[in-house]
Amino acid sequence: MPNQFSLAYLTVLGCSPPEMTYMAAKAGYDFVSLRPIYMGLPGEPNYALAENKQLMRETKSAMSETGVKLLDIELARIYEGVNPKRYLPAMEAAAELGGRHVLSSIWTDDRNFGIECFAEICDLAKPFGLTIELEYVPIASVYNLKGAMDVLHTANRENAGLMIDIHHFHRSGDKVEDLEDVPREWFRYLHLCNASAEIPSSKEEMTRVLREERLYLNEEGIDVASIINRIPQVPYSIELPNVKRANELGYEEFARQCLQTAKQYLDKHPRKKYVSHDAVGQDQLRFHSTR
Questions:
Q1: Which superfamily is assigned to 5-286 in CATH?
Q2: pTM across the whole model
Q3: Where is the Xylose isomerase-like TIM barrel domain (predicted)?
C-alpha cells in the first residue's frame, strides 16, 4: 500500500483551515490535520469551525475543490477541571467534514480524573464515528508509553487508540521493543518528524525544540525507521515545526520540503517484517498492514 500523508497544524502554525487545505493539495498531501479547538495560547488565532460558519464553509469548499480530506482534529486536552463536553462542537464539525480522529493528551496529575475524562471524551465522540487518539507528551502528565497504555487499558473504550509522535517517543526514553506489546488496533495514524538524537536536559529546551526546531526525516537524528517498523502501516501526519526554515522558505515550500524529505527517507528505509515473541514464548512472524 502507498504511504499517505497529512499536513499537521503545528507544521504551518497559524494558517487557517482553508489555507492549510489548499497548501496541502499543492504540496502533494492526502490529508490535513486541523486545530478547530481553540486553546487560547498567546498569539494563536481562533479557528473554531463550529463557531465560525463562514470559515466552515470556506474549509468545506477547499476540501471539495482539492480532494484533500480531514484526517484528525486537535486538541481535546485534559486538564484539571475541564468539562469534556466543551469538545462536542468541534467533534460535530470534524464529523461534518468527514474527519476520522480526535487527538487528546492528558495534563493533570490526577490519574482518576484524567482517565474518567478520557473515557467520557471517547463516549462523546462515538456517535460521530470518531476515534479518540491518546498522544503522550514528555512535558505533560502522561508522558510515556507505559502511562498511555495504563489510560487506554483502564478506560477500555473501543474507539480509543494510541497516537505515537516520533519526537515524543524518543524524548520519553521508550524502547521500540515495547511497541510490540501495544494492541495493533490501537494504531490509526502517527506524527512523523525528526529531531536531534541528544535529549535536552531541561524542560524549557525540550519544549522549545518540540515547538520550534524539529528536523527533516533525512537529517541525522532519531532512528525513525526503527520506530515505524514496529507500527502497522498507517497514515503519517507530518508534524514538523521549524520556525527558522518556515520563515526562510515560506509555509507552502516548507510543507513541500517536509513531505519530499519524508518520502525520500521512507524510500531509503522500506518497511520490514519483524519477529516478535508471543505470550506463550513462541517466535511469531508479524507483518505490518494498513488498518
A1: Divalent-metal-dependent TIM barrel enzymes (3.20.20.150)
A2: 0.91
A3: 24-252
